[in-house]
Structures
1.
Amino acid sequence: MKKALIIVDVQNDFCEGGALAVPGANEIIPYINLLMEENNYEQIVLTQDWHPSNHKSFASNNGRKVGESIILNGVPQFMWPDHCIEGTFGAEFHKDLNRDKVTHIVQKGKNTEIDAYSGFQDNNHFMKTGLDDFLKYHDIQLVEIVGLALDYCVKFTCLDAVANGYITCLHFNGTRAVNVKPDNGKDAIFEMLQKGVTVLG
């Protein structure tokens, strides 16, 4: 069975000192590097948040405060601080992440009008990123998923992987949650388990 590792959004803005730092984010990088070193993956894919500066998910572009919610093109949208703006240091992958074996990069969140948490598609399910096509082209049947953040981009990438027919495993030690609310990470795990995601370690 051919397997791929999907590494979600290990970018400077989500790591220590970043604009949207996830608590404990830097702790997962050595674990992810070890996975790549100790396992034989047919493909290793990075997803990368890559927002235009006028992205509608940014509180600053809506006259809102971070943490508020609006309806954006028919779906609820959490208001985030400006983060992972295309071409900036914050959007770059963290320097400690070993990219020697990476075979593919998927950029997401490029459409100003709609956010994209999942590595597979935007939040409106209008536009695919090409990740599913890439994995199917390479006959991938099993995906292992790590990265940031557990309760947003990792969760939705896992759920879409299951929906697209992949055996889907989440490495618990390879992810951390934003936890806007204290139980968000725990709730995300519960939801993924219900939908058929296997949680490892």
2.
Amino acid sequence: MTTRLSIFPLPGVILFPGLQLPLHIFEPRYRALVGDALVRDRRIAMIQPQRPVEGAPLYSIGCVGRIGEIEAMDDGRYNLVLEGQARFRIIRELDVTTAFRQVEAELIEEDEDAVLSAVERAGFEREARRFADNQGYSVDWASVERLDDETLINGVAQIAPFDPASKQALLEAPDLPARCELLIQLMYFYGRRDGDDDRVTLQ
């Protein structure tokens, strides 16, 4: 089954089902997008453009979010929290008259029972500790250990300081173990990159 989605193309930003994404909306076209969503189904589809330029082609997979908390400002801007609902795959971009882009897409079914093996979880936490130490991050590891596998892996994937192509690869990973393995690889390479090179990519 396909659905029509209004999209917010934002480089370097991904959203996962079950997670939240705070957004500050100030551009007129995306203020229009939010206004339209509020009178319809409160859905906004987050997806990355392949290049950070106007009208750039889109990656094929993104995530639909539902507007939760929202603050409307007097000047028309919004502060809102988008709650991830489902990943989607673009079928085609639609020819529309709205200021914002729209697509026809199919929603991707997720394995709600996906878990990591004890070895996979331990390997991830071990590399995450190394990565955090190398980057100088302060982490409450006791809280991390209490997270379920999906929240932990998707949460780190969503906020990780990687380049857009790498973040897209994380979003497109077919299942939780594959995403976990990719995160381990990225943390390993990013944590050991040349100090004069801030870029990290799988390409």
